[in-house]
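Quick one: Stromal cell derived factor 2 from Cyanistes caeruleus, structure tokens please.
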Amino acid sequence: TPVRCGQAIRLTHLGTGRNLHSHRFTSPLSGNQEVSAFGEAGEGDYLDDWTVVCSGTYWVRDDEVRFQHTSTDVFLSVTGEQYGRPIHGQKEVHGMATSSQNNYWKVMEGIFMQPSEALQMEQYHAEL
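--- reply ---
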């Protein structure tokens, strides 16, 4: 199913089954809002929901996109702060209150599904 701009989604880590989660706690490195992993096998709570912020009708694979937390309104971001442990050089992902260049995301890998014929027809439909 195509993902609409403005649609609430959950981002689930395939390896752990945990959802991208946020709540009103301060992140350890940047002092922004903490983002973590939560839940089991894709099940979690309302704090796992993110709104897809993009232009157009649908999230298009090659376009930049933002994710805004549905409960706290922060944008999923990364600014360069790095942990020393447990994984040296791993960057802190956090929530920022304002939109900026630090909260644009682009698909680099994953599962790509061809648009359905119905979606293609919708994109080119014109009233007579």
